[in-house]
Amino acid sequence: MHLKIFPPANNMHSSTFNVSEVLRIRGIFTSWHFPGDDLFGPYELLNFTLVGPYAGVYLTKGKNISRGVWVAIALGSIACIIAVTAAVSLLIARRYARQHRKMSRRHISSNASMKIDGVKGFTFKEMAMATDSFNCSAQVGRGGYGKVYRGILSGNSIVAIKRAEEGSLQGQKEFLTEIKLLSRLHHINLVSLVGYCEEKEEQMLVYEFMPNGTLRDWLSDKAKGTLNFGTRLRIALGSAKGILYLHTEAQPPVFHRDIKATNILLDSKLTAKVADFGLSRVAPVLDDEGNLPNHVSTVVKGNSRIP
């Protein structure tokens, strides 16, 4: 399309539009929209070719961008900035959380080393050798704390090794709690703590091995065997004796707060032993005036549902 602009340059009239006026006029025409037509359309206005004295005016080729396109570009740019900012913030938060967990584990481990006299400390190398480098074939269970492995120590004694996983539901604080409690609690119906490992940012607890697994294993519909009434009654009485010891004979008393079938273990003779003291709390002790210094919640903290 050719655009002819008046007034033209001639001998009678020498006035012409300047470059900015030419561009403004061109902008008016290039902003027009031509409706499509089934026979001849659609139409697209690409450029004006100026003639006469305006032929030397430089015009950039290409069609003008509509306001809607500019709005879309702006919104897209804002969305990209928000997405990048969110991604960077998430990475920073994850890195901070990871560093915080590592520092917490180091802090708790140092505290544990000072407060668990009489409990054997194992090295990471010993734990790896006992489980064949934590081979999946040695795994016998898994919970909120982490994985449980069957291990054989250097003296050929069989133990259960509970290895905490990073980001586990139980860990860090529960690690120290369980060591402190089991190091002073001794009863035939409580699982015995053999030792612990707190090396290379690892947290592992070593218990006596329970070859018959958990009570839940025997009560589920996938159980390999059944328990007769007499055995069930004996398991119930053994569990009750363990809990009674915690509430009345332990000094100070202990509230387990997570009694369930998965935390009742069975030895080779199907003797019940209460386990997993990570959520337990020590009862408050009376002061010299006979008052309780603080309040301890006895609300159940674990999930006691049996599928």
Question: Strand share of the residues?
Answer: 5-15%
CATH architecture of the largest domain, please?
Answer: Orthogonal Bundle
CATH third-level topology of the largest domain: Transferase(Phosphotransferase), domain 1
Estimate nothing, just give the exact number of structural domains: 2
- Taking the alpha carbons of the first and last residues, their distance comes to 80 Å
Overview of the molecule:
Residues 134-307 form the Protein kinase domain. This is Protein kinase domain-containing protein. This protein folds into two domains: 2-54, no CATH class; 116-282, Transferase(Phosphotransferase) domain 1 (Transferase(Phosphotransferase), domain 1, Orthogonal Bundle), CATH 1.10.510.10. It is 34% helix and 14% strand. The chain has helices at residues 19-30, 67-115, 124-130, 173-182, 215-219, 229-249; strands at 2-3, 49-50, 120-121, 139-142, 146-152, 158-164, 193-197, 204-208, 254-255, 264-266, 272-274, 281-282. Strand 1 (2-3), helix 1 (19-30) and strand 2 (49-50) form a beta-alpha-beta unit. Helix 2 packs parallel to helix 4. The relative contact order is 0.08. The model is unreliable at 110-115 (pLDDT under 50).
